[in-house]
Specification:
alpha/beta, 5 strands, binds adenosine-5'-diphosphate, binds shikimate-3-phosphate, binds magnesium ion
Protein backbone atom coordinates (compact mmCIF):
# COMPACT_ATOMS: atom_id res chain seq x y z
CA UNK A 1 0.00 0.00 0.00
CA UNK A 2 1.25 3.50 -0.81
CA UNK A 3 0.96 6.09 1.87
CA UNK A 4 -0.28 8.93 -0.30
CA UNK A 5 -3.58 7.10 0.15
CA UNK A 6 -3.25 7.15 3.94
CA UNK A 7 -4.58 9.84 6.22
CA UNK A 8 -2.50 10.88 9.21
CA UNK A 9 -4.53 8.65 11.53
CA UNK A 10 -3.93 5.59 9.36
CA UNK A 11 -0.19 6.02 9.03
CA UNK A 12 2.04 3.69 10.98
CA UNK A 13 4.02 5.20 13.84
CA UNK A 14 7.74 4.48 14.01
CA UNK A 15 9.47 4.77 17.40
CA UNK A 16 13.10 5.85 17.18
CA UNK A 17 15.68 6.74 19.82
CA UNK A 18 18.79 5.52 21.58
CA UNK A 19 19.23 1.94 22.82
CA UNK A 20 17.26 1.33 25.98
CA UNK A 21 15.12 4.47 25.87
CA UNK A 22 12.02 2.25 25.79
CA UNK A 23 11.04 1.95 22.11
CA UNK A 24 10.10 -1.71 22.43
CA UNK A 25 8.38 -1.44 25.81
CA UNK A 26 6.49 1.80 25.16
CA UNK A 27 5.76 0.90 21.53
CA UNK A 28 4.04 -2.32 22.58
CA UNK A 29 1.94 -0.53 25.23
CA UNK A 30 1.05 2.24 22.81
CA UNK A 31 -0.12 -0.31 20.25
CA UNK A 32 -2.44 -1.86 22.83
CA UNK A 33 -3.92 1.52 23.73
CA UNK A 34 -4.51 2.47 20.10
CA UNK A 35 -5.72 -1.05 19.10
CA UNK A 36 -2.94 -1.27 16.54
CA UNK A 37 -0.63 -4.04 15.45
CA UNK A 38 2.83 -3.91 17.01
CA UNK A 39 6.05 -4.95 15.36
CA UNK A 40 9.52 -4.86 16.85
CA UNK A 41 12.05 -4.93 14.02
CA UNK A 42 14.81 -6.38 16.22
CA UNK A 43 12.55 -9.26 17.24
CA UNK A 44 11.73 -9.92 13.57
CA UNK A 45 15.44 -9.91 12.68
CA UNK A 46 16.09 -12.43 15.47
CA UNK A 47 13.31 -14.65 14.08
CA UNK A 48 14.73 -14.48 10.56
CA UNK A 49 18.24 -15.43 11.69
CA UNK A 50 16.88 -17.76 14.38
CA UNK A 51 19.37 -16.37 16.90
CA UNK A 52 19.71 -13.44 19.33
CA UNK A 53 21.19 -10.14 18.14
CA UNK A 54 24.64 -10.52 19.75
CA UNK A 55 25.04 -13.86 17.97
CA UNK A 56 23.90 -12.36 14.64
CA UNK A 57 26.62 -9.70 15.02
CA UNK A 58 29.22 -12.35 15.90
CA UNK A 59 28.22 -14.83 13.21
CA UNK A 60 27.22 -12.68 10.22
CA UNK A 61 28.50 -9.22 11.18
CA UNK A 62 26.76 -5.87 11.64
CA UNK A 63 26.46 -5.38 7.87
CA UNK A 64 24.16 -8.41 7.49
CA UNK A 65 22.13 -7.21 10.46
CA UNK A 66 21.73 -3.74 8.91
CA UNK A 67 20.70 -5.22 5.57
CA UNK A 68 17.94 -7.29 7.16
CA UNK A 69 16.91 -4.28 9.25
CA UNK A 70 16.48 -2.25 6.05
CA UNK A 71 14.49 -5.00 4.29
CA UNK A 72 12.07 -5.37 7.18
CA UNK A 73 11.59 -1.63 7.74
CA UNK A 74 11.05 -1.18 4.03
CA UNK A 75 8.20 -3.67 4.24
CA UNK A 76 6.55 -2.56 7.48
CA UNK A 77 6.86 1.19 6.89
CA UNK A 78 4.52 0.76 3.93
CA UNK A 79 1.80 -0.93 5.99
CA UNK A 80 -0.90 1.17 7.65
CA UNK A 81 -1.88 1.20 11.33
CA UNK A 82 1.23 -0.33 12.86
CA UNK A 83 3.33 0.77 15.76
CA UNK A 84 6.85 -0.07 14.64
CA UNK A 85 9.76 -0.08 17.08
CA UNK A 86 13.06 0.01 15.27
CA UNK A 87 16.53 -0.50 16.70
CA UNK A 88 18.47 2.54 17.85
CA UNK A 89 20.82 2.33 14.85
CA UNK A 90 18.18 2.04 12.13
CA UNK A 91 18.29 5.76 11.29
CA UNK A 92 22.00 5.49 10.50
CA UNK A 93 20.79 4.34 7.07
CA UNK A 94 19.55 7.20 4.93
CA UNK A 95 17.15 4.95 3.00
CA UNK A 96 15.49 3.95 6.27
CA UNK A 97 15.21 7.59 7.35
CA UNK A 98 13.61 8.49 4.03
CA UNK A 99 11.14 5.57 4.00
CA UNK A 100 9.98 6.23 7.54
CA UNK A 101 9.75 10.01 7.23
CA UNK A 102 7.82 9.73 3.99
CA UNK A 103 5.40 6.92 4.86
CA UNK A 104 4.96 7.06 8.63
CA UNK A 105 4.78 9.31 11.65
CA UNK A 106 8.24 9.21 13.22
CA UNK A 107 8.18 9.53 16.99
CA UNK A 108 11.49 10.18 18.75
CA UNK A 109 11.65 8.94 22.32
CA UNK A 110 14.24 11.23 23.86
CA UNK A 111 16.06 10.83 27.16
CA UNK A 112 18.84 12.81 28.82
CA UNK A 113 22.25 11.22 29.30
CA UNK A 114 21.83 11.67 33.08
CA UNK A 115 18.72 9.46 33.11
CA UNK A 116 19.99 7.02 30.51
CA UNK A 117 23.28 6.19 32.22
CA UNK A 118 21.45 4.69 35.23
CA UNK A 119 19.92 2.10 32.88
CA UNK A 120 23.20 0.95 31.42
CA UNK A 121 23.63 -2.13 33.65
CA UNK A 122 20.37 -3.74 32.51
CA UNK A 123 21.08 -3.04 28.83
CA UNK A 124 24.61 -4.11 28.03
CA UNK A 125 24.12 -7.92 27.90
CA UNK A 126 22.07 -8.17 24.72
CA UNK A 127 23.26 -5.04 22.95
CA UNK A 128 26.55 -5.72 21.15
CA UNK A 129 27.30 -2.02 20.63
CA UNK A 130 27.30 -1.43 24.39
CA UNK A 131 29.57 -4.34 25.24
CA UNK A 132 33.22 -3.79 26.06
CA UNK A 133 32.90 -0.02 25.79
CA UNK A 134 33.79 2.55 28.41
CA UNK A 135 31.11 4.91 29.71
CA UNK A 136 32.96 7.76 27.99
CA UNK A 137 32.70 5.97 24.61
CA UNK A 138 29.03 5.27 25.15
CA UNK A 139 28.41 8.87 26.15
CA UNK A 140 30.04 9.98 22.92
CA UNK A 141 27.92 7.53 20.89
CA UNK A 142 24.81 8.75 22.72
CA UNK A 143 25.52 12.38 21.75
CA UNK A 144 26.56 11.55 18.17
CA UNK A 145 23.32 9.66 17.62
CA UNK A 146 21.20 12.72 18.50
CA UNK A 147 21.76 14.03 14.98
CA UNK A 148 19.98 11.10 13.34
CA UNK A 149 17.16 11.17 15.87
CA UNK A 150 16.56 14.86 15.18
CA UNK A 151 14.94 13.67 11.94
CA UNK A 152 11.47 13.12 13.34
CA UNK A 153 7.90 14.36 13.22
CA UNK A 154 7.41 14.46 16.97
CA UNK A 155 9.64 14.24 20.05
CA UNK A 156 8.67 12.95 23.47
CA UNK A 157 10.98 13.56 26.44
CA UNK A 158 10.59 10.37 28.45
CA UNK A 159 12.97 10.99 31.39
CA UNK A 160 10.36 11.29 34.13
CA UNK A 161 7.75 8.85 32.79
CA UNK A 162 7.29 5.19 33.56
CA UNK A 163 6.62 3.18 30.39
CA UNK A 164 2.87 2.86 31.10
CA UNK A 165 2.51 6.59 31.82
CA UNK A 166 4.40 7.44 28.65
CA UNK A 167 2.12 5.21 26.57
CA UNK A 168 -1.01 6.77 28.07
CA UNK A 169 0.30 10.27 27.41
CA UNK A 170 1.32 9.44 23.84
CA UNK A 171 -1.96 7.69 23.02
CA UNK A 172 -3.93 10.71 24.27
CA UNK A 173 -1.72 13.19 22.40
CA UNK A 174 -1.98 11.22 19.16
CA UNK A 175 -5.76 10.90 19.41
CA UNK A 176 -6.02 14.63 20.00
CA UNK A 177 -3.86 15.41 16.98
CA UNK A 178 -6.01 13.08 14.84
CA UNK A 179 -9.15 14.90 15.95
CA UNK A 180 -7.59 18.21 15.00
CA UNK A 181 -6.65 16.80 11.62
CA UNK A 182 -10.05 15.19 11.02
CA UNK A 183 -11.93 16.56 8.02
CA UNK A 184 -14.93 18.82 8.73
CA UNK A 185 -18.34 17.16 8.45
N1 LIG B 1 9.97 4.65 30.77
C1 LIG B 1 10.79 3.76 31.30
N2 LIG B 1 11.25 3.92 32.56
C2 LIG B 1 12.09 3.03 33.11
N3 LIG B 1 12.53 1.90 32.50
C3 LIG B 1 12.11 1.68 31.26
C4 LIG B 1 11.22 2.59 30.58
N4 LIG B 1 10.99 2.09 29.35
C5 LIG B 1 11.70 0.95 29.26
N5 LIG B 1 12.36 0.70 30.39
C6 LIG B 1 13.24 -0.44 30.66
O1 LIG B 1 14.46 -0.19 29.95
C7 LIG B 1 14.91 -1.39 29.32
C8 LIG B 1 15.03 -1.17 27.82
O2 LIG B 1 13.73 -0.99 27.27
P1 LIG B 1 13.43 -1.31 25.76
O3 LIG B 1 11.98 -1.10 25.58
O4 LIG B 1 13.98 -2.63 25.38
O5 LIG B 1 14.26 -0.16 25.02
P2 LIG B 1 14.64 0.00 23.50
O6 LIG B 1 13.71 -0.83 22.68
O7 LIG B 1 14.53 1.46 23.24
O8 LIG B 1 16.06 -0.46 23.40
C9 LIG B 1 13.91 -2.49 29.71
O9 LIG B 1 14.44 -3.19 30.82
C10 LIG B 1 12.67 -1.74 30.11
O10 LIG B 1 11.92 -2.42 31.08
O1 LIG C 1 21.61 1.30 18.36
C1 LIG C 1 21.94 0.28 17.70
O2 LIG C 1 22.77 0.34 16.78
C2 LIG C 1 21.27 -1.01 18.02
C3 LIG C 1 20.15 -0.99 18.82
C4 LIG C 1 19.45 -2.22 19.22
O3 LIG C 1 18.05 -1.98 19.39
P1 LIG C 1 17.44 -1.16 20.63
O4 LIG C 1 17.60 0.31 20.31
O5 LIG C 1 16.01 -1.57 20.69
O6 LIG C 1 18.21 -1.54 21.84
C5 LIG C 1 19.66 -3.31 18.18
O7 LIG C 1 19.00 -2.97 16.99
C6 LIG C 1 21.12 -3.53 17.93
O8 LIG C 1 21.72 -3.99 19.12
C7 LIG C 1 21.82 -2.26 17.42
MG1 LIG D 1 14.06 -2.33 21.22
Amino acid sequence: MRNFELSIREKSIVCIGFMGVGKTTVGKLLAQKLYRNFIDIDAEIEKEFAMPIPLIFETYGEKAFRQKEKELISHYSQQPLYIISVGGGAFLQKEIQAMCLENCVVLFLDISWESWKDRFQILSDNRPLLRDRSMDDIKQLFHERQTIYSLNHSTFQIDHFEAEEAAIYLADALKLSWEIHAPQR
